[in-house]
Amino acid sequence: MTTESCFKIVIDIATAFGTIAVAILAIWGERIRSWLSPTKLEIGAHNNFRGDPNLLTSQLGQQVGRGMFYHLKVINKRPWLPIKNCRVLLMGISRRGPDNVFHPSPLVVPSQLIWAPASFAPTLVAVTKEQIVDLGNIREGDSAFRLALYSTPNNFAGLVGKDEAVRFELAIEADNFSSSRYKVIEVAWDGIWEFEPEKMENHLRIREIREP
Fold first, then answer.
1. Tell me: the pLDDT tens digits for 86-97?
2. Each residue of 115-124: pLDDT tens digit?
3. Which of 4, 31, 155, 184 is the most buried (most CB within 10 A)?
4. Which sequence spans correspond to the domains of the chain?
5. How far apart are alpha carbons 109 and 100 in whole angstroms?
6. Cis before 82 (ω within 30)
């Protein structure tokens, strides 16, 4: 067999393997990329948990009150792998007791946090880089901080009243991602309400609880 013939055989084999590889990538490319570099999402603070003051209006455009709103963000650490049909779920609640220890409160069914802006965002979103999600709000004259949930059970134990502190366990679920660990966010309030974010930070504190 001549050198030219051997060289041609090598080229034909390489071409055949290349064709097969292209076909495999076309069919299973996303699955292969996910295996080599799995999707990775994180929940983080938006604007360092600084409150966003808003004037509340009725459907007729009349001012009906004031509120302070707080947000989180879902961050896609691998933006080349888009996340489909994503949602953030409240999986658990713990309340601070008189012994200064946090004790679990009942939560029979997980509830979903509201994507921002609440008026336009669908319940399930795609996350390429990052997406803002409402954490909760407290309105002037109200007695508690309330989580921003699409539905709230009648026996919901997650309100944060005066001199109370509550920890919320959050998870991310999507078509191609599921949290392996919960993100724990603590909200504490002393009962005083302010419309200026700098002042309100002295009365309502939100922080991430870092696991040991």
1. 999 999 999 999
2. 999 888 999 9
3. 184
4. 1-36, 41-208
5. 26
6. no
